[in-house]
Amino acid sequence: MRTITLQQFEALEWIVDEIEVGEHQLDKFEEPVGLDGDGEPAMTTQYISWLSGTCLLRAKAVPQISYLFDWTAQGGKESLEDAHDFYIDFSEAGDSRLEMEGIELVDDEGSVLPLSEAEQLAYEAANKDVDWEVEVGRQLPEVPMT
């Protein structure tokens, strides 16, 4: 089995390998915003939009190492345009999985480290070093023409 040190793992460059986008949900609803001149509830139209999917990152120099995670995108407020101005982030309720086919992570002394330690490093790299949100954003729905 091949080994990779913690330092080598931290130095890996990651690329977006695959993105899956789920079904887009868009809701339009009326929300009270106070009272009108007659004392009746004043309503305003609001929009909310969301979808989710997965993103697969792959280590450029070691393609056997990949990191798959769930993401969510949501937008919305006062216009249809707002509903398509998505905020993209890791899914709090989602899963993530690091695959290291035939590779073990080791410390400086050569002791094998748990996969959970490598998963944390992959998560940190995805948050800091990879513009996966930009790649996901390119695949999200745009404001429909009316």
How would you describe this structure to a colleague?
The protein has 146 residues and is of the alpha+beta class. It has one domain (2-31, 44-137). The protein is built from four helices and eight strands, in the order E-H-E-E-E-E-H-E-E-E-H-H. It has helices at residues 6-10, 80-83, 115-128, 132-137, and strands at residues 2-5, 14-21, 25-35, 41-59, 65-77, 87-90, 96-100, 103-106. Strands 2, 3, 4, 5, 6 and 7 form a six-stranded antiparallel sheet that branches. Strand 4 and strand 5 (65-77) form a beta hairpin. The longest helix has 14 residues, at 115-128. The model has no long low-confidence stretch (mean pLDDT 91).
End-to-end C-alpha gap? 58 Å
Work out the strand percent.
Answer: over 45%
Instruction: State the helix count.
Output: 4
Biggest sheet descriptor: 6 strands, antiparallel
Give the SSE order as H and E letters: EHEEEEHEEEHH
Q: What oligomeric state do these chains adopt?
A: single chain
Q: Tally the beta strands.
A: 8
Q: Tell me, rounded to a whole number, the average pLDDT.
A: 91
The share of residues in helices is 10-25%
Over all CA atoms, what is the radius of gyration?
21 Å
Structural class: alpha+beta
User: What is the general shape?
Assistant: elongated
- Domain count, please report it: 1
Catalogue the unreliable spans. none
Protein traits:
single chain; 146 residues; alpha+beta; six-stranded antiparallel sheet; two-stranded parallel sheet; 47% strand; elongated
